[in-house]
Amino acid sequence: MADRPGDQWDRRVANGLAFLRRRLAGDYEVDEFGFDPELTDAVFHPLLRLLYRDWFRTEVSGVEHVPVDGPALVVGNHSGTVALDALILSAALHDKHPAHRYLRLLGADLVFRMPVVSEIARKTGGTVACNPDAERLLGGGDLVGVFPEGFKGIGKLYAERYKLQRFGRGGFVSAALRTGTPIVPVAIVGGEEIYPMLADIKPLARLLKLPYFPVTPTFPWLGPLGMVPLPSKWLIEFCPPIPTAHLTDSADDPLVVFNLADQVRETIQQTLHTLLERRPDPFGP
C-alpha cells in the first residue's frame, strides 16, 4: 500500500526521537580516535549535502578509482581561505561511493586546539596530521584524506588560485609506503572562489596567532554575512590510484619519497587544468 501523506513525517519524527534517546542514553559507539559514525550520518553529512549538492552544484567523477574496501590514501589540493574543501570531499565521497565509505581526514594541529571545532573534527573522523595516526588508520583498512599543502594552500591569494603549493617533506608518502597503501590523487575545482582572498593582514594574523587574516570581497566588510560562501560551481575528480606495495622497503629513502610526492602533485595539477577547461564559468550552472 502507498504511504499516506503523514506516514513519511511520522517515520522521521520516530527516527528523530529514537536518535535522541540513544544519544541521551549513551547508546552509541565511537572508535579510539573519537569518530562517531551515527552523529556524522544524522547531523553533519545532511548539512554538508545541502552545500555540495545544492549550493555548489558539485559534480563528482572517477569515484571508481577509490577502492571498495581496504586502505587508500586520498591526496587532494587545498584552497578556499576556509577549509570547506576537505569537508565537501568527505561528504561527497561517502554519498557517491558504492560502499559509502568514510574518509578519515588528517588536520593541522591548530584545528585540534580550537574549542568546538576540535570536537566536531574528532566526531566526524578527523585526527592530527601525523604519521603514527595515519599509519594506524591505514593499517586498520580505512580511507585516509590528506591535503599536503596545508595552510599554504588554503591561505594563498586569489591571484595564485589553482597553483599548487609545496607538498612539505612528503610525510604522507612515507605513511603510504610503510603500509603498502595505494595513493589516490584527487583534484578539486571550485574551492578557490568561495572566499576569494584579496589580501592577508599579517600583523593582525600574528596578533590573533592565526596562519593568516584574510580580506575577501565580503569579509570583514559584511561582518558575519561575509562568512557565507559564494556559490561557485565545483568539480571533483578522483584520479587512478598509484600503487606503493612494491616500495615498502623505501619508506625512509628521501629520493623515493620526493619523487612519489612530486608524481602525486603533478597528477593533481594537470587534472586541475583539465577541470578548469571543463568549467569556464566559475559561477555557471
Question: What topology does this entry show?
Answer:
Blueprint: H1 7-25, H2 37-55, E1 59-61, E2 72-76, H3 84-96, E3 103-107, H4 117-123, E4 127-128, H5 131-139, E5 143-146, H6 151-154, H7 171-179, E6 183-189, E7 199-200, H8 202-208, E8 214-215, E9 235-238, H9 254-278
**Overall shape:** globular
> Which ranges are low-confidence, i.e. pLDDT below 50, for 5 or more consecutive residues?
none
Beta-strand share of residues? 5-15%
Class from helix and strand fractions: alpha/beta
Helix/strand order, N-terminal first: HHEEHEHEHEHHEEHEEH
End-to-end separation: 39 Å
Count of individual helical segments = 9
Q: Major sheet, described briefly?
A: 7 strands, mixed
Q: From the alpha carbons, calculate the radius of gyration and give it in angstroms.
A: 20 Å
**Strand runs, count:** 9
